[in-house]
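#dry-run=false #mode=assembly
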Amino acid sequence: MAISNPMYIIIVGAGKVGYYLAKALTQEGHEVLVMEKDRKVAEAIAEELGEIVMHADGCEVRSMSEAGMARANVVVAVTGDDEDNLVICQMAKRKFGVPRTIARVNDPKNEELFQELGIDQTVSSTRIIFNLIEQQIETGQVIPLAALKKGEIEVVEADITPGSPVEGLRIGQLDLPPNTLIISVIRDGHALIPHADTRLRQGDSVIAMIKAEREKELRAVFAGEQP
Amino acid sequence: MKIVILGCGRVGSTIATTMSREGHDVTVIDQNPDAFRRLGKDFKGKMVTGNGIDADTLRKADVGNADAFVAVTNGDNRNIMSVQLAKVRFKVPKVVARIYDPIRAVAYAELGIETVCTTCVGAGLIRDKVLDQPFGGFEQYARLGMEEQVLGPTESATPEVE
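#status=ok
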């Protein structure tokens, strides 16, 4: 598959995440390099992925330089150790001027810290799974999906559960907190772009963009509690 | 002063016992409680078992009230991450990281983190002993091995000191 804007993407860590990511990005037509410090792991995946695998420590400046990090568009650090992922991204950014760095975060507590320390984006599978479980057991819950601007703005999801006070109301009728923007309504697996006349039904998921401190008020709207 | 030391290996335990004897308030963190044996029976400071890159462990060691935080585990990246955690989250005024890799030591020093590259310091001292030269100074030693570094666009590495 040819894409119009192929990028040079360096992935550090050839575990399951790194491996499947490399495969998917290569199929998309991007130029990918995987760095793995364990020789056995590197050799094993090189058999399948070929020359795009480099046996090297992605934290070593010499290896980073050999990998051509200075011309990378994106560096993704997905090793199993948060401290390594942090250092890889910081060095990529500061030493090699990589415009976009993405770190896998194993301990969800580190997400905020990493962003404070200059990492562009963080991904925590622990946090995502936690949110999914919370979603199952809470009603009227507002689930954070993503944080922008270091957590100042959040993208959140709220489900219209049976008995929700907003069921049957039009979006224009909702008493939303200030600085809230409803960006989508997920209905029967499809994402709708809503307008003021879109009527909410049971089973809908409402995706909203909101100032982080307003989350409680939004929850109150959907759960029918006093904030 | 109140100092928290992460890593109770040879270096960490030596700093701890020395500074404790000098009358400082010392806390040592290590994830392996057996490591505390290096401190000896007379050690007056506190010992905390835990992972040094976990904010909960640093809180247990009362890092928030420390005047200094020192990271001397065997892992360069662990040391780098924990001192940044101490500096950014716990506002510790002085943090020092031991880093074996000379290039990483210089890179993080540029970012405003005090680093000691024991590889360079050791190499410099030994070289001077071999050549019967006087002590060359830590500043000079810290740059040892850097000449070979014809890597990466270092000039673009603008330090982003917070």
